[in-house]
Amino acid sequence: MKNTFLCSVVLVLLSTGLCHGSGVITVDFLRGATGESVTFTTSVKPAAEPFLALTWSFNTTVNVVTSTSVDIVGQGYENRIVLDKSTGSLVLSNVTEKDSGEYELIIIPHGGEHIQGTVELEVLTAVSNPSISCPTENLIEGKSSVNITCDADGLVSSTLWLKDGKPLVSGDRFSFHHGNRVLSISPIDRKDTGLILCNVSNAISYQTAECRLHVYYGPDKPTVTQKPRRAEMEEKVSLSCFAESLPEATFFWTFRNRKIPGPVVHIKEMEEHHLGAYTCTARNAVTHREASEVHRLRDSSPIISGSMSMMVCTVLTSGALMLI
Ligand SMILES: *[C@@H]1O[C@H](CO)[C@@H](O)[C@H](O)[C@H]1NC(C)=O
Ligand SMILES: *[C@@H]1O[C@H](CO)[C@@H](O)[C@H](O)[C@H]1NC(C)=O
Ligand SMILES: *[C@@H]1O[C@H](CO)[C@@H](O)[C@H](O)[C@H]1NC(C)=O
Ligand SMILES: *[C@@H]1O[C@H](CO)[C@@H](O)[C@H](O)[C@H]1NC(C)=O
How far apart are the CA of 288 and the centre of ligand 3, in A? Predict the structure, then answer.
């Protein structure tokens, strides 16, 4: 019972070829690039006498070379092979994807067992001519979405995207389509400004292409700085306005329905009629967006002396007027 079982296992292994392994060939799998050479190296020790026969075949049925007293080189292998008759090692040059498949070596020595080995060859065409479609229109934060396509010649088995050297992963705003060939960013954000790179590769090669993104944004809500922070009557005061924006924003102020060019309002001597609400408006010429902030200019003079000086002032002014 047990013996019969073992027997069938052995038979199955033999008939499915699992017992072959790589035989005398040093590797059972080899990868090559189109146009290059591959070498099938054997572990066969050169014998004292030349082998009776030596044959390399492709995909079981195609003769690559059969060497007895004469060499018969298969069609399509002329000038492409170099055979070492003492070890069976074979160099196959100028390989193409059509050369992908199984190669088998059989050696018949003078006496002794047949020597056999197989090797699987995979020929890939190197990735070349990478190209990336960079957006040409203005990219505006929160409004634009963009698709960037990466293409290349040759067999592309993987496409990776990087931003400033770090891999991009799909998430809220990033997604990948058509087997990663297309990177979609929606909506676009100011953080996306930078260098986008696609890396197309296969097992034997890779190429990259890149694209610089400029995302226009803003203006954000302006901030107003008053100098000095506590302004007193008759003092010099300035109000300056700033807002994050790309390109830089242009500014104007509105005070009592009057428009004042920005970003800074200069008041040489603060007077009563200068006090009140100043509105700074920032404007971005590319995004066509505006943002405003209101700042109230107050009199921070000490209350008593403040009102007194004002009185003195009024008295003086009226006195002067009367003199004229
Ligand atoms: C390699 O093979 C290609 C196509 O099979 C052929 O056009 C080319 O001339 C060959 N190059 C060499 C150096 O043999
Ligand atoms: C050789 O065999 C492999 C499978 O092992 C197959 O993919 C390939 O197309 C075959 N090549 C030719 C030229 O018949
Ligand atoms: C980007 O590609 C996606 C998916 O193919 C499509 O739905 C979307 O309309 C495209 N967006 C742009 C801006 O071309
Ligand atoms: C591109 O991908 C290949 C294969 O994954 C990797 O070896 C290589 O370092 C990558 N290059 C860049 C610039 O990311």
Answer: 24
**Separation of 181 CA from ligand 2 center, angstroms?**
28
Dist CA 264 CA 281 (whole Å): 12
**How many of the other CB atoms lie within 10 Å of CB of 240?**
17
Max intra-chain CA distance, the chain: 140
User: CA–CA separation, 13 vs 260, rounded Å?
Assistant: 92
Q: Domains in the chain and their CATH numbers?
A: 2-124 (2.60.40.10), 131-216 (2.60.40.10), 223-297 (2.60.40.10)
Closest by CA position to 161, among listed 128, 139, 189, 194: 194
| Ligand showing the shortest atom-to-Cα distance for residue 36 | 1
Ligand nearest to the CA of 177: 3
The minimum-distance atom of ligand 2 relative to the CA of 98 is 13
pLDDT tens-digit series, residues 196-254: 999 999 999 999 999 999 999 999 999 999 999 999 999 999 999 999 999 999 999 99
Residues within a 6 A CB radius of ligand 2: 59, 98, 100-102
Nearest protein Cα to ligand 2, atom 1:
101
pLDDT, one tens digit per residue, over 265-318 is 999 999 999 999 999 999 999 999 999 999 999 999 887 554 544 544 444 444
Q: What is the pTM of this model?
A: 0.72
Instruction: Supply the residue whose CA is at minimum distance from atom 8 of ligand 2.
Output: 101
